[in-house]
Write a sequence for this structure.
C-alpha cells in the first residue's frame, strides 16, 4: 500500500496542498521499517550523527548545495537579507536572516482602533496545529496519543500552571525560514535546557510516537506578558538539528515579533503554551486542526487575541 502523502491547509491561498518532504524516502524507511527502526535507536536519534551532519553543512564545500536547494524548493530569494550566492556554507544559508519587513507583524498597526498588544502572532514559519485546550490535543497524529504537558515541560508545578491552557505546535521543514520569534511582547526569563534525543518531528515519525516531542532535546523559556500572563515558548531539536541558538537577551523586555533565536540545519519545531483563558486562538487555525490538517502560515501572522 503506498504511503499517504502529508497534506496541509495553506492559510494565504486557502487551499489544501501536498508537502514536498525533504528526505522523504529516508524518513519513511527509518520510521516505517524494522531495519530502519533498528538504525533509529542505534544511531539516528543520537546527537553524534546530527553533530557530524551539522559539521558537514558548515564546510565551505557545502555552499555548492545552496543554489540547487533554492531552485528545487522554489524559495523566494527576494526576501533574503543576503544574495543566495554569498552564503559561505549551507548552514549559514539555512539559518539566513530576512529583509526588514519580509514578515509583517500582525497588530503592530492600531489605525483601526483595535489594541494591537492584544493580538498574539505565530512564532515561526511552518505548519501549525492549534488547540484551544491542550487536553484536546489527542489523536491528531495517531489515535490514542495525547500531549503530555508534564513530560514536555519537565516540571510538575509548571504543568499544573498551564493545565487546560492553549497549545500551538509549529513544525518547521528544512525549506522554511529557520529563525523563531516571540509571539507576544513581554519579559523573557532564562531559557531552560532539557536534554534528550534527536528524533524527527515530521508527521511520518510522530504518527509512530507522539512522545518524540518530549523525548527530544528542547529549551523552555517563560515570557511574562502584561496582556497574556505567563507564556511558555519552547524550541525542540530534531534529527540533524543539534543546535538551538538563543539570540535574545534574557531579562530584557522584548517586542512582539522580535527574534528569539535560530535553528541550525534540519527541520524542527516550536511549541507555544498559554495559560487557560488567556487567549482565543483564531478560528481558522483551530478549525483546520480539528479537521485533521496542519495550517501553513508564516511568522508574524495572527495567532489569536487575548481572552
Amino acid at each position: 500500500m503506498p504511503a499517504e502523502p502529508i497534506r496541509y491547509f495553506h492559510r494565504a491561498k486557502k487551499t489544501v496542498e501536498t508537502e514536498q518532504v525533504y528526505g522523504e524516502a529516508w524518513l519513511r524507511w527509518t520510521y516505517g521499517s524494522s531495519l530502519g527502526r533498528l538504525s533509529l535507536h542505534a544511531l539516528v536519534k543520537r546527537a553524534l550523527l546530527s553533530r557530524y551532519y551539522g559539521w558537514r553543512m558548515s564546510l565551505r564545500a557545502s555552499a555548492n548545495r545552496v543554489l540547487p536547494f533554492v531552485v528545487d524548493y522554489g524559495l523566494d530569494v527576494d526576501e533574503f537579507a543576503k544574495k543566495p550566492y554569498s552564503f559561505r556554507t549551507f548552514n549559514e544559508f539555512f539559518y539566513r536572516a530576512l529583509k526588514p519587513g519580509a514578515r509583517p507583524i500582525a497588530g503592530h498597526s492600531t489605525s483601526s482602533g483595535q489594541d494591537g498588544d492584544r493580538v498574539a502572532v505565530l512564532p515561526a514559519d511552518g505548519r501549525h496545529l492549534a488547540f484551544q485546550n491542550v487536553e484536546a490535543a489527542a489523536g491528531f497524529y495517531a489515535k490514542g496519543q495525547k500531549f503530555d504537558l508534564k513530560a514536555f515541560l519537565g516540571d510538575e508545578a509548571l504543568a499544573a500552571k498551564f493545565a487546560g491552557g492553549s497549545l500551538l505546535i509549529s513544525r518547521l521543514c528544512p525549506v522554511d525560514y529557520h529563525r523563531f520569534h516571540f509571539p507576544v511582547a513581554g519579559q523573557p526569563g532564562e531559557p531552560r535546557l532539557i536534554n534528550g534525543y534527536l528524533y524527527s518531528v515530521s508527521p511520518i515519525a510522530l504518527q509512530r510516537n507522539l512522545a518524540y516531542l518530549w523525548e527530544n532535546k528542547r529549551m523552555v523559556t517563560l515570557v511574562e506578558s502584561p496582556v497574556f500572563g505567563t507564556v511558555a515558548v519552547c524550541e525542540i531539536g530534531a534529527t540533524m538539528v543539534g543546535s538551538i541558538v538563543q539570540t535574545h537577551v534574557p531579562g530584557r523586555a522584548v517586542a512582539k515579533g522580535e527574534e528569539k533565536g535560530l535553528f541550525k540545519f534540519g527541520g524542527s519545531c516550536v511549541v507555544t503554551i498559554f495559560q487557560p483563558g488567556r487567549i482565543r486562538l483564531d478560528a481558522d487555525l483551530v478549525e483546520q486542526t480539528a479537521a485533521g490538517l496542519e495550517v501553513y502560515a508564516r511568522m508574524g501572522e495572527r495567532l489569536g487575541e487575548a481572552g
In short: Residues 55 and 281 are 39 Å apart (CA to CA). Residues 116-306 form one domain.
